[in-house]
Amino acid sequence: MKRKSVIQFLIVSLLLHSGCSLLSEKNIYASEIAKYETNFNTNYKTLHGFSENLIPIEDKNGIGFINTKGNIIASPSWESVMPFKNERAIVSKNRKYGLINTEGKIIVSPQYTFMEDCENGLFVVAKDKEFGLIDTDGKMVLNLNYQWISTFNDDMAMVKKTGKYGFIDKTGKLTIPIEWDCLEVFENGLAPAVNINKNICGFIDKNGIVVTKVEDYYFDDQAKKNKITYSQLFMPSEGVAIYKTVEGDNGYVGIDGKIISPPQKKTLSSFKNGIGVIQKSNGTSTMINKRGKVIANIDGYILNSFSCNMGFAEKNKKYVAVNTEGKLVTGYVFTDFKDCTENLAAVKTEKGKWGFINSEGKLVIADKWDYVTQFNNGTAIAESSTAGITKYAIIDKDGKLVGNKTWDFVGKYEYGENANKFILVSENKKFGLLDHAGNILIPPQWDGISGGYDYGKFLLQEKDTYYAISIAN
């Protein structure tokens, strides 16, 4: 994964000024915000987002950090920085990556062409396409002798060498030999694995033992026995996995190794709510159950996997909703849709407006909005425009306005520990913060609010003065 050469904090924020900064810090309830100023001034540009109480800044020389009192921790000199985690941040210079600590000290000098945080005290690093592992102090845990190393999952990481795959543990010890042509990560103690030369396809345990071997044949319509040579076996969903043959055909198999559907040149979707979907080249779809029995043939491509027991099928850029029995759940035809979340799916009707249907196909929130988001934590964001003026609302599952009002802007924080926990609002060019129940945590009286990666940490801006606060639980 190639790092971008710009800061990647990706936080929803609207800082309107980037000149002088006066910063102060106090852990308080938002409803009791008091203004504390320091005598610190800086001409650095203050960048969006902060982590572990450190704020990224930028000038012509690069990117650095100040703390929430305005003191320079790391002078701007880096091409890119990542958020701090466990007192370490990945930084780059001349497209080489290293580590600094929260005091701005260089722990690992920029020397690697790739670096990724494994979030367990280890970092995957690479030089000249050779991968290894280092710890938080830069000590080499695993030498640079692999073609690729994944991040850790269930205390194990996948490695690749000479085109084959195996697994290592957190000490760098090879726990599963590098002999597999295809491997997937472990889930519930099992991982899909394929060895083409040995014609082994199945699910292995953490000792590399094949617990379940997938059948090496299937019967066609004439009951003829046909041999299968597998090239890939994907992660199972609801106890069913998709396999691929060396000829490029696809099929379904259960985690017990029994073939559910024979190999065919079709596109398959993962099982969801007991349904698998086979997309056909003629623009139709076949829904099957876990026994391989055909539930229904649909005139159109089914484009999602039956979240909330409802899928959408597309035909000539029109969409209809079907249930897990393959029956239409509504007589409406839609021009756009969003996958169902929290038992409601956003749909755009032919009159060009958005509303929501439930899993029974009933339009429970009227199609009157110009745009909506999916529901999350019981609320969605909806917008409408009149005479060129756009207003935003937070709506509940009854379609009612949360707080009984509209805003000039509404946005949900999507990253770090603040993800989906707070809502940013704007009124008369001033910004505030709400929870999902519509309670005002920070009144809309600030020129800007920037959220950090750490829970409840925010920067409030008033002209050229910034206040660092922490919202208490």
List keywords for this structure.
473 residues, four-stranded mixed sheet, four-stranded antiparallel sheet, flat
Physical arrangement of strands within the biggest beta sheet: 1-47-46-45
Strand content: over 45%
Number of helices: 0
Structural shape: flat
**Mean pLDDT rating:** 87
Radius of gyration: 27 Å
Put the structure in a nutshell:
With 473 residues, the chain is an all-beta fold.
Topology record:
Blueprint: E1 25-28, E2 45-46, E3 54-59, E4 62-67, E5 72-78, E6 80-81, E7 88-93, E8 96-101, E9 106-112, E10 114-117, E11 122-127, E12 130-135, E13 140-146, E14 148-149, E15 156-161, E16 164-169, E17 174-180, E18 182-183, E19 191-195, E20 200-204, E21 210-213, E22 217-219, E23 225-227, E24 230-233, E25 240-245, E26 250-254, E27 267-272, E28 275-279, E29 285-288, E30 294-298, E31 301-302, E32 310-315, E33 318-323, E34 334-337, E35 344-349, E36 354-358, E37 363-369, E38 371-372, E39 380-386, E40 389-395, E41 409-412, E42 423-427, E43 430-434, E44 440-446, E45 448-451, E46 457-462, E47 465-471
Parallel strand pairs: 1-47
Antiparallel strand pairs: 2-3, 3-4, 4-5, 6-7, 7-8, 8-9, 10-11, 11-12, 12-13, 14-15, 15-16, 16-17, 18-19, 19-20, 20-21, 22-23, 24-25, 25-26, 27-28, 28-29, 29-30, 31-32, 32-33, 34-35, 35-36, 36-37, 38-39, 39-40, 41-42, 42-43, 43-44, 45-46, 46-47
